[in-house]
Amino acid sequence: MREEVVEYVHLPSGSEPPALTFQHRRVIVIIEQEVDDDWQDQISDWIAASGCLCMMAWGRDCSSWDDSVDHSNLARFDYREVPDENFIMTTWHDDELLSEVFFYNQMCAFHPTIDLPLVTILHISETNQSENLLREYQKERLALENDGEPEQVSLIQKVRNLFS
């Protein structure tokens, strides 16, 4: 498994994002609240400017986040061709379990030339659930590391489930 640092950012709908620190990263956006379009655009700009190169959205209206982050990144380059080192791969996962998004992050979210050691779990929710979500993330990571254990779903089965 690759080395990584995982951070949790709790961001209730309508609130200001934390101070921006540029660092190449993967961002998992978990949407549990309704958001308005202007705020979503603001947060998408924040994601694009943060150094994110892989964004995975899960939860309420997650497919709109895929488009919103794509548009934010295109706007950063005046809607011209985005250089490879700034291209953000975006995905949405509306028909999957959150554990499958965590699996996808571990096994499929890569940039071809830039290492992405930072994982930001951006949680759009009324309540802070850092302890629970970080525990679930680590549980999925450990399951991948211990794939031979009988109580774990095999890696092959997880890949089949992800792409079926």
Characterise the protein shown here.
The chain is of the alpha/beta class. The protein has one domain (5-163): Aldehyde Dehydrogenase, Chain A, domain 2. 38% of the residues lie in helices and 20% in strands. The chain has five helices and five strands. It has a five-stranded parallel sheet with strand order 1-5-2-3-4, sandwiched between helices. Helix 1 packs across helix 2 and helix 3 packs across helix 4. It is globular. The model is unreliable at 148-152 (pLDDT under 50).
CATH class: Alpha Beta
Number of domain units: 1
Task: Give the biggest beta sheet.
Answer: 5 strands, parallel
Estimated helix fraction = 25-40%
Mean pLDDT: 91
Which overall shape is indicated by the principal axes computed on the Cα atoms? Answer: globular
The CATH topology name reads Aldehyde Dehydrogenase, Chain A, domain 2
CA radius of gyration: 16 Å
Quick take:
The protein is α/β, with parallel strands linked by helices and 164 residues long.
Topology:
Blueprint lengths: L4 E6 L14 E7 L5 H13 L2 E8 L2 H15 L12 E4 L5 H10 L10 E7 L5 H16 L9 H9 L1
Parallel strand pairs: 1-5, 2-3, 2-5, 3-4
Helix pairs in contact: 1-2, 3-4
Based on the model shown, name its key terms.
single chain; 164 residues; alpha/beta; Aldehyde Dehydrogenase, Chain A, domain 2; five-stranded parallel sheet; 5 strands; 20% strand; globular
